[in-house]
Amino acid sequence: MIRVLFADDHEMVRIGVSAYLASQQDIDVIAEASDGEEAVKLTLEHKPDIILMDLVMKEMDGIEATKQIMESWSDAKIIIVTSFVDDEKVYPALEAGATSYMLKTSKANEIADAIRATYEGQSILEPEVTGKIMSKMRKQSVVEPHEQLTDREKEILLLMAEGKTNQEIADQLYIALKTVKVHVSNILGKLEVQDRTQAVIYAFKHDLV
Questions:
Q1: Are 170 and 179 in contact, with CB atoms under 8 Å apart?
Q2: Domain spans of the chain?
Q3: Residues forming beta bridges with residue 102, ordered by sequence position
Q4: Is residue 10's pLDDT more than 80?
Q5: Could you tell me the fold of the domain covering 2-140?
């Protein structure tokens, strides 16, 4: 039997979901919690195989409850079951340690299947949630060349844009001429340009000056 703890502050939701899960031969709802604090307490007391966790609850929300559970019992497997699919809920929940993320619009049998899959070590995410995660990952993976510049390199690029020579830059920044040349070389490499002129043009095009 897969031992399940269900945390949700809506009694009718708990009754409905628990009744369906109780009809499954391999699932046993061993405890129910009406808020995050109770969920943490009952989890540490019963050590269920799976925790169904609502996000928005009184006293303590599901994200904080998930954090506290994972800090006290890192082997916990938590399935978020919520109505929210916005970024400010999804990412904090997953970062807190939730294994799977389901929506309350899911059918009862889909929740049961998610419990079984999570119990077997899989991570189940609603298609809408998966789409948001992939979109965020794609955005994070796109790094503009100038974002690789160090603060010193950005400073030197600005001085280059002002038309200063390497010697003038060295004098202004109180660093060796050789050091300036190394920085300039790094700047050209990171911006993927051939010379100082192209670097300055890049800086203006990307509003760095």
A1: yes
A2: 2-140, 145-205
A3: 81
A4: yes
A5: Rossmann fold (3.40.50)
